[in-house]
Specification:
Strand order of the largest sheet: 1-2
Radius of gyration: 19 Å
Strand content: under 5%
Structural class: mainly alpha
Number of helices: 6
Number of strands: 2
Largest sheet: 2 strands, parallel
Amino acid sequence: MKDIPFKFDEIGIWSELKLEIVEQYGAAYTKAFARTPNLKKYYIDGFSGADGLLEKARAFIVSPNIDVRRDALEKLWDAFERLKTLEPGADKRAQAVALHTRAAASVGPHFRDVISEEALRLTKIGNELRICHSEIDKEIVKNAAQVDYLFARMFGFIRYLLISTGRGG
Protein backbone atom coordinates (compact mmCIF):
# COMPACT_ATOMS: atom_id res chain seq x y z
CA MET A 1 0.00 0.00 0.00
CA LYS A 2 3.03 2.27 0.02
CA ASP A 3 2.64 3.10 -3.68
CA ILE A 4 -0.75 4.82 -3.27
CA PRO A 5 -0.58 8.32 -4.82
CA PHE A 6 -2.31 10.18 -1.98
CA LYS A 7 -1.73 10.97 1.66
CA PHE A 8 -3.65 9.26 4.42
CA ASP A 9 -5.77 11.42 6.67
CA GLU A 10 -4.84 12.18 10.27
CA ILE A 11 -6.36 8.93 11.48
CA GLY A 12 -3.45 7.13 9.79
CA ILE A 13 -3.57 3.45 10.63
CA TRP A 14 -7.39 3.39 10.58
CA SER A 15 -7.41 4.75 7.04
CA GLU A 16 -4.91 2.09 6.02
CA LEU A 17 -7.06 -0.59 7.63
CA LYS A 18 -10.22 0.68 5.90
CA LEU A 19 -8.43 0.72 2.56
CA GLU A 20 -7.16 -2.82 3.10
CA ILE A 21 -10.70 -4.00 3.92
CA VAL A 22 -12.05 -2.36 0.76
CA GLU A 23 -9.31 -3.98 -1.32
CA GLN A 24 -10.03 -7.42 0.17
CA TYR A 25 -13.78 -6.95 -0.30
CA GLY A 26 -13.30 -5.95 -3.94
CA ALA A 27 -11.10 -8.96 -4.63
CA ALA A 28 -13.54 -11.38 -2.94
CA TYR A 29 -16.51 -9.81 -4.74
CA THR A 30 -14.81 -10.13 -8.13
CA LYS A 31 -13.76 -13.72 -7.42
CA ALA A 32 -17.26 -14.76 -6.29
CA PHE A 33 -18.94 -13.36 -9.39
CA ALA A 34 -16.29 -14.81 -11.69
CA ARG A 35 -17.16 -18.29 -10.38
CA THR A 36 -20.92 -17.74 -10.79
CA PRO A 37 -21.51 -15.89 -14.09
CA ASN A 38 -25.32 -16.29 -14.07
CA LEU A 39 -25.67 -14.69 -10.62
CA LYS A 40 -27.45 -11.34 -10.75
CA LYS A 41 -25.21 -8.55 -9.54
CA TYR A 42 -27.02 -6.32 -7.05
CA TYR A 43 -24.95 -4.17 -4.77
CA ILE A 44 -26.44 -2.72 -1.62
CA ASP A 45 -23.99 -0.94 0.64
CA GLY A 46 -25.44 -1.24 4.13
CA PHE A 47 -28.57 0.79 3.69
CA SER A 48 -27.44 2.45 0.45
CA GLY A 49 -25.60 5.06 2.49
CA ALA A 50 -28.56 5.70 4.74
CA ASP A 51 -26.88 4.26 7.81
CA GLY A 52 -24.36 7.11 7.94
CA LEU A 53 -27.11 9.66 7.41
CA LEU A 54 -29.14 8.17 10.26
CA GLU A 55 -26.17 8.37 12.62
CA LYS A 56 -25.54 12.01 11.71
CA ALA A 57 -29.22 12.82 12.11
CA ARG A 58 -29.28 11.26 15.58
CA ALA A 59 -26.18 13.20 16.58
CA PHE A 60 -27.44 16.53 15.19
CA ILE A 61 -31.01 16.44 16.55
CA VAL A 62 -29.90 16.95 20.16
CA SER A 63 -28.20 20.26 19.39
CA PRO A 64 -29.78 23.40 20.87
CA ASN A 65 -28.99 25.20 17.58
CA ILE A 66 -32.08 25.17 15.33
CA ASP A 67 -29.96 25.20 12.17
CA VAL A 68 -28.10 22.06 13.25
CA ARG A 69 -31.43 20.44 14.11
CA ARG A 70 -32.73 21.31 10.64
CA ASP A 71 -29.61 19.59 9.26
CA ALA A 72 -30.63 16.51 11.25
CA LEU A 73 -34.04 16.59 9.60
CA GLU A 74 -32.48 16.94 6.15
CA LYS A 75 -30.19 13.96 6.77
CA LEU A 76 -33.15 11.90 7.93
CA TRP A 77 -35.14 12.76 4.79
CA ASP A 78 -32.14 11.89 2.62
CA ALA A 79 -31.93 8.51 4.38
CA PHE A 80 -35.65 7.98 3.68
CA GLU A 81 -35.09 8.57 -0.03
CA ARG A 82 -32.23 6.06 -0.08
CA LEU A 83 -34.18 3.43 1.86
CA LYS A 84 -36.83 3.45 -0.85
CA THR A 85 -34.34 1.70 -3.14
CA LEU A 86 -33.31 -1.19 -0.86
CA GLU A 87 -35.56 -3.80 -2.45
CA PRO A 88 -35.23 -4.97 -6.06
CA GLY A 89 -37.64 -3.48 -8.56
CA ALA A 90 -37.96 -1.98 -12.02
CA ASP A 91 -37.92 1.59 -10.69
CA LYS A 92 -37.93 3.54 -7.43
CA ARG A 93 -41.69 3.26 -7.04
CA ALA A 94 -41.65 -0.53 -7.50
CA GLN A 95 -38.76 -0.78 -5.06
CA ALA A 96 -40.67 1.26 -2.46
CA VAL A 97 -43.79 -0.91 -2.87
CA ALA A 98 -41.64 -4.02 -2.42
CA LEU A 99 -40.14 -2.50 0.75
CA HIS A 100 -43.58 -1.70 2.19
CA THR A 101 -44.87 -5.16 1.32
CA ARG A 102 -41.88 -6.81 2.98
CA ALA A 103 -42.18 -4.54 6.04
CA ALA A 104 -45.83 -5.48 6.52
CA ALA A 105 -45.53 -9.16 5.54
CA SER A 106 -46.04 -10.50 9.04
CA VAL A 107 -48.97 -8.24 9.94
CA GLY A 108 -51.26 -8.25 6.91
CA PRO A 109 -52.43 -6.25 3.91
CA HIS A 110 -54.22 -3.50 5.85
CA PHE A 111 -51.07 -2.56 7.70
CA ARG A 112 -49.19 -2.57 4.38
CA ASP A 113 -51.67 0.07 3.24
CA VAL A 114 -50.95 2.08 6.41
CA ILE A 115 -47.21 1.87 5.67
CA SER A 116 -47.67 2.88 2.03
CA GLU A 117 -49.96 5.78 2.98
CA GLU A 118 -47.47 7.01 5.58
CA ALA A 119 -44.64 6.82 3.04
CA LEU A 120 -46.70 8.88 0.58
CA ARG A 121 -47.57 11.41 3.28
CA LEU A 122 -43.95 11.75 4.39
CA THR A 123 -42.89 12.17 0.76
CA LYS A 124 -45.52 14.90 0.34
CA ILE A 125 -44.32 16.64 3.51
CA GLY A 126 -40.78 16.56 2.16
CA ASN A 127 -41.96 17.98 -1.15
CA GLU A 128 -43.98 20.81 0.43
CA LEU A 129 -41.73 21.92 3.29
CA ARG A 130 -38.16 23.15 3.17
CA ILE A 131 -36.44 20.06 4.51
CA CYS A 132 -33.47 20.47 2.18
CA HIS A 133 -31.61 23.79 2.40
CA SER A 134 -31.58 24.24 -1.35
CA GLU A 135 -35.38 24.28 -1.60
CA ILE A 136 -35.79 28.00 -1.04
CA ASP A 137 -39.24 28.22 -2.65
CA LYS A 138 -40.89 26.03 0.02
CA GLU A 139 -42.36 26.76 3.41
CA ILE A 140 -39.66 26.72 6.09
CA VAL A 141 -39.81 24.53 9.17
CA LYS A 142 -39.66 27.43 11.63
CA ASN A 143 -39.12 26.16 15.13
CA ALA A 144 -37.72 23.34 17.23
CA ALA A 145 -41.16 21.88 17.97
CA GLN A 146 -41.84 21.45 14.25
CA VAL A 147 -38.39 19.94 13.68
CA ASP A 148 -38.89 17.54 16.61
CA TYR A 149 -42.33 16.46 15.39
CA LEU A 150 -41.16 15.77 11.85
CA PHE A 151 -37.98 14.10 13.06
CA ALA A 152 -39.85 11.78 15.44
CA ARG A 153 -42.41 10.88 12.80
CA MET A 154 -39.81 10.10 10.12
CA PHE A 155 -37.39 8.38 12.49
CA GLY A 156 -40.17 6.12 13.78
CA PHE A 157 -41.16 5.22 10.24
CA ILE A 158 -37.60 4.46 9.15
CA ARG A 159 -36.96 2.45 12.30
CA TYR A 160 -40.07 0.35 11.67
CA LEU A 161 -38.98 -0.34 8.07
CA LEU A 162 -35.49 -1.37 9.14
CA ILE A 163 -36.61 -3.62 12.01
CA SER A 164 -39.46 -5.26 10.12
CA THR A 165 -37.25 -6.08 7.14
CA GLY A 166 -34.44 -7.50 9.27
CA ARG A 167 -32.03 -4.63 8.69
CA GLY A 168 -31.53 -3.49 12.25
CA GLY A 169 -33.11 -0.43 13.69
